[in-house]
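Below sits our specimen:

——
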Amino acid sequence: MSKRLPARGTSNPASSTAGVAPTRTSTPVPSARRASPPASRPALSRARIVDAAAALVDREGAEALSARRLAGELGCEAMSLYHHVPNMGELLDAVVDQALGALPLPEADTAAPGAALRAMTDAYLGLAGMRPHTFRVLATHRWRTPAEIAYQSRLIELLVHVGHAPRAALRASRVLLVYLNGGGLAIAIWAQDMRHVSVERTTPVVRKLMKFSTAPAVARDVRSGLTLLLEALLPASRASARQRGAR
């Protein structure tokens, strides 16, 4: 007796599910946590630009200062710098103005103008040793910034206070600045370049003196010269020197 076939249009429940994978219930995947935005940089400002330029000049010298390099330091576009500073020349002026402006100025009517002059000039030479790259810019360009004018003006006022006529005080201030800038450059250069100098072909006297061929010795000699210059410019010091010579 033959098996009965299923009627056309019907399906065998067993065969209809053969080879078909069971339906899986999908589990919702948690969405990735949104990354927090990066910390924002301080707003660009003239003060921030000058600070960054000063740090760059102190590290590498004025030759390293450019809009592109400074923008890289600040994390901004080079052109955005010019919204705050008109050009790199004025920015360099601002750097040296900031450095000189950090030196304290004594009062013009101080009771001890001679001591105030010594303190002012000694601090100026100190800047050469502490910030040699910046000092080299300060000492080799024409003075025109507010801090530069204020510094020389105070020199003149103190020289008038010790007895110089105004025109003589101006002349004396220029003599002082010529010495300070030249001596300061010597200090700055020695602070940066300590290469050995051969003196084998010099005389024995010079070879013995090479123990003083050091940056600290140069700084001491420059300050000794400054003392001599101030003694020549200060009336009280001249009188004291004459008294010492008479003894």
Remarks:
- The two ends are 156 Å apart (CA to CA).
